Amino acid sequence: MSKKPSQTPYTTPRHHSDKWQQRVAQVAYRFNQQYQNQPFDLPTEVQAMPIFRDWITGTLPGRIASCFWEIAKPQKNQQCLDIGCGVSFLIYPWRDWQAFFYGQEVSIVAQETLNSRGSQLNSKLFKGVELGPAHHLNYAADQFDLAIATGFSCYFPLEYWSAVLLEVKRVLKPGGQFVFDILNPEQPLAEDWAVLETYLGAEVFLESVAEWEKIIKAAGAKVVARQSGELFNLYKVQF
């Protein structure tokens, strides 16, 4: 990018001040560092872990990424919201689906990158990325047919995700779908992943699948599809 984004990691929009602000800022800072290719100062023993070597060489992300479209392929002219989108609009084939895509992200680096490049990729389908956390979506009620949130649930406790589920329910149209992934602590990679991410700057919560499914049910959501990956389980739910 031509200019370096502000080093301020995250400021809660709409003057929200709540108990999640510090954790959201921590996650934003961790990903700002990554997106700006800034070095991470990690202990030698962490750098010696196989999972670190896979991460630093770039082979890990492709292995563990949750391909949401495998269980919820966007349809033509649908309104879709990618929450915590990172730089995903530069990676996955959203233009092929002919659906309208909006985003929301806590990393100002990712937000600025996507807003500067997304419209160049397809100005009709790309509707912009807002800066903000998952529990305060900057969008209207009943706006979306599909909401997506992959790759970041593990950085927040279940209580936070209860709030996210309610907020997603608000912005979805009746009958809309929400696709998100959770870290499965039973997977062999889970503990090493948690160690790595904690040293990269964002603590990981290892919550059981059973506890996750309890909060899904408590939010009034019904699981309509699920898919297991090497590290994450992908869920499609309806409210």
Structure description:
Helices cover about 35% and strands about 20% of the residues. The protein has about 240 residues and is of the alpha/beta class. The chain has one domain: Rossmann fold. Helix 6 packs across helix 8. The radius of gyration is 17 Å and the shape is globular.
Task: Write a short abstract of this structure.
It contains eight helices and seven strands; from the N terminus they run ααααββαββαβααββ.
Provide key terms for this protein.
239 residues, 21% strand, alpha/beta, disordered N terminus, Rossmann fold, 34% helix, globular, seven-stranded mixed beta sheet
SSE layout and pairing:
Elements: H1 21-35, H2 44-47, H3 50-57, H4 59-64, E1 79-83, E2 100-105, H5 108-121, E3 126-131, E4 144-149, H6 158-171, E5 172-183, H7 190-200, H8 209-218, E6 222-228, E7 232-238
